[in-house]
Design a protein that fits this description.
The protein has 158 residues and is mainly beta. Helices cover 11% and strands 49% of the residues.
Length: 158
């Protein structure tokens, strides 16, 4: 399944609309305004929360917790690297390794050594836009939450 993630251009807090491969809205993601922990949630179009995510405040390398309701279902941690960004996701859906390119515009998710997700950031756009190709049986909203975390870490944080 393919998705297109578009950041809203004029919003007080970061906000995204996620479109399916037929260009129909599928999910929404909204950062909480004035949150110390940089929190956001992924919802369906009816406003039902699917996941909420929050950044760990004190850590040497960035970490984000991914929760479903009050239960933590995953944690994304940045690995110490010098040229290409790498992350590790430990989750109830399995463990993933994420590898990015030098410019932090393209990422691949690997699960058990197999590529399960491709992410490509669009160049020359006014707002952050990503193409996401999810292969197989992965939880789509969970994967999309991780893509938004990557955007926050590389293209939005100050």
């Amino acid at each position: 399944m393919k998705y297109l993630i578009k950041q809203k251009l004029f919003a007080i807090a970061d906000s995204y609309t996620i479109y399916d491969e037929n260009e129909n809205p599928a999910y929404l993601a909204n950062f909480k305004l004035l949150s110390i922990r940089n929190k956001f949630n992924i919802t369906d179009l009816n406003g039902n929360e699917l996941y909420n995510c929050e950044k760990k405040i004190f850590s040497f390398l960035p970490e984000f917790y991914i929760n479903k309701g009050d239960k933590q279902v995953g944690i994304l941690k940045k690995r110490l690297t010098f040229f290409k960004p790498k992350f590790y996701i430990k989750s109830s859906f399995g463990n993933y390794n994420l590898e990015g390119d030098f410019f932090q515009y393209n990422f691949d998710f690997y699960k058990n050594g197999k590529n399960v997700v491709d992410i490509n950031k669009a160049f020359f756009t006014l707002r952050d836009t990503y193409g996401v190709h999810i292969k197989g049986d992965e939880d789509h909203a969970f994967i999309l939450a991780n893509v938004i975390i990557l955007d926050f870490l590389f293209h939005n944080s100050s």
